[in-house]
Specification:
About 30% of the residues lie in helices and about 30% in strands. With about 160 residues, the protein is an alpha+beta fold. Strands 1-2-3-7-6-5-4 form a seven-stranded antiparallel sheet, sandwiched between helices. The termini are far apart.
């Protein structure tokens, strides 16, 4: 019994030492190289890809998909809020149907000299949509209005 007790105590001690010594990343998950993602999208797309020039300190790109007809970039802010950029060679109504079907009109905004339609979702997410000629650009996210509009202003 004494041997079992000693082994049990050693196992418990090893568990707690492992918990203390384990390194947990501050931001778990995938990080995508923004410059590489934009370069790849610009090579693959049949349209002029719109992307942020850079991300604010502490923000990180977490997903990117691209092809000849569409491009997606997912970003997480420093406070772990999500912003998604979608650009497609489809009309705005289809972009809304695909990415924000339950959203409702909430006016418009002039950002960096461009007119954007604004929508809101029941969970508080905001959606910015712009017809960019041959493509529709949609930015949707749970970030604050100021963060979303700053991100939209950075797109070129």
């Amino acid at each position: 019994m004494r041997t079992i007790g000693v082994l049990g105590a050693l196992l418990i001690a090893a568990f707690f030492v492992g918990q203390v010594m384990t390194v947990r990343p501050q931001h778990p998950g995938t990080t995508v190289d923004l410059d590489e993602a934009v370069k790849g999208a610009r090579l693959a797309a049949k349209f002029a890809v719109i992307a942020p020039r850079a991300l604010p300190k502490g923000w990180r790109a977490t997903s990117a998909r691209f092809g000849p007809e569409a491009w997606h970039l997912g970003v997480v802010t420093r406070d772990d809020r999500y912003i998604g950029l979608e650009q497609e060679t489809r009309p705005p109504a289809e972009g809304i149907k695909n990415f924000a079907p339950a959203s409702r009109k909430a006016g418009s905004a002039s950002i960096a000299g461009q007119r954007w339609s604004v929508r809101t979702e029941s969970d508080g997410d905001r959606v910015y949509i712009r017809d960019a000629g041959s493509t529709t650009v949609l930015v949707i996210g749970s970030a604050s209005k100021a963060q979303l509009e700053s991100y939209v202003a950075s797109l070129s």
